[in-house]
Write a structure and sequence with these properties.
- By secondary structure, the protein is α/β, with parallel strands linked by helices.
- It has 2 domains: 131 residues, Rossmann fold, CATH 3.40.50.2300; 149 residues, GAF domain (Beta-Lactamase).
- It is built from 8 helices and 10 strands.
- The chain has a 5-stranded parallel β-sheet, with helices on both faces.
- Helix 2 runs parallel beside helix 3, helix 5 packs antiparallel against helix 6 and helix 5 runs parallel beside helix 8.
Length: 333
């Protein structure tokens, strides 16, 4: 910062002629100059709200000497740059001022005007540098805090994204395991248990079960296959779960309709292939929060794979029945 009227210089001396001489030296400089005829008068100015950048005090004054005044001024205005005017005979007292009042430097009487102006200029520059450093330090601390918060936010987002990617990988691996399993025919119960094991592992739920329709299209109230699904429900909850399963088994499209029963939340999705409706896949988790849309999509994808497997099993059973019937017919001929 350059010299400007924002900087105030306070001169303190008990001799009016010296104060007039000091004021005259700085007439052409852009400083606001204040003068005080005693240490107490100068303290009164500080208490009244004056905030001089530089305080220059004579060392030898009646009543309150320069060392005492500058020490007290330091307590009121610690950021000011303080200097003392002293004669050769007062060097020891000047050193006392430096120790007691935190003096930047002392100026010998009689002073050289240019040297005094340069000393004031240096003091103003020092004041600006100290304040600029303080501002920059504060700004740096704020930026560092913001950076720490940003890093924490980024780490949280990275962690969330990593968890999401891991979940996607688990889902893809699970679907691939089921797809590989569907490449061959297996007994229906074995097929359902295999799919439920993958569902339970991938979605990290508390339990899951298939409820299937019989040959006449009626929904069996007992689970056709289950993993950690056994739970004692009262009559009302049993009826509520049965209604939710019946609704899902008959639905054309899956819905994210969570049913809260006891300490668990249930969601049922249809197991269907085209127009064929085979039943419902039901999953449960602890707590009362609805299932997330992403988790629901994963459940639906496994239900669709189950529908393919059930369809193939039933087709194979029908084929075996037809083949047996043909054998009976041919044997009778």
């Amino acid at each position: 910062m350059s010299e400007s009227t924002s900087h105030t210089i306070l001169f303190v001396d008990d001799e009016k002629s010296i104060l007039k001489a000091l004021r005259r030296i700085f007439l052409d400089d852009n400083y606001q100059v204040l003068t005080a005829g005693s240490g107490q008068e100068a303290l009164d100015l500080l208490h009244a709200g004056e905030k001089p950048t530089v305080i220059i005090s004579d060392q030898r004054m009646p009543g309150m000497g320069g060392a005492e005044f500058l020490g007290r001024a330091r307590k009121i205005l610690p950021d000011s740059i303080r200097m003392v005017l002293t004669g050769y005979a007062d060097i020891n007292a000047a050193m006392e001022s430096i120790n007691q009042g935190g003096i930047y430097r002392y100026i010998l009487k009689p002073w050289n005007d240019e040297e005094l102006k340069l000393a004031v200029k240096d003091a103003v520059l020092l004041f600006d540098l100290i304040n600029q450093n303080r501002r920059l330090t504060t700004e740096l601390e704020k930026n560092n805090l913001a950076l720490v918060e940003l890093n924490a936010s980024l780490e949280q987002k990275v962690a969330e994204r990593t968890r999401a990617l891991r979940q996607i990988i688990l889902e893809l691996e699970g679907r691939d395991r089921i797809q590989q399993y569907l490449m061959e025919l297996h007994p229906l119960n074995e097929l359902l248990q295999t799919i439920l094991a993958v569902v339970h592992e991938v979605i990290t739920i508390d339990g899951c079960a298939f409820f299937l329709k019989d040959a006449d299209g009626r929904l069996d109230p007992a689970a056709g296959a289950a993993v950690n699904f056994a739970e004692r429900l009262d009559k009302d909850d049993t009826l509520a779960l049965a209604a939710a399963v019946q609704q899902a088994a008959s639905a054309d499209e899956p819905e994210n309709q969570t049913t809260l029963l006891g300490q668990y939340s249930y969601v049922a999705v249809p197991v269907r292939k085209g127009s064929r409706k085979f039943g419902a896949l039901v999953v449960k988790k602890e707590g009362d929060k609805p299932f997330h849309e992403n988790k629901l999509r994963t459940i639906i994808s496994f239900a669709n794979q189950a529908a393919i497997g059930i369809h193939d099993c039933q087709f194979q059973e029908n084929f075996d029945d037809i083949e047996a019937s043909l054998d009976d017919v041919l044997s009778a001929i």
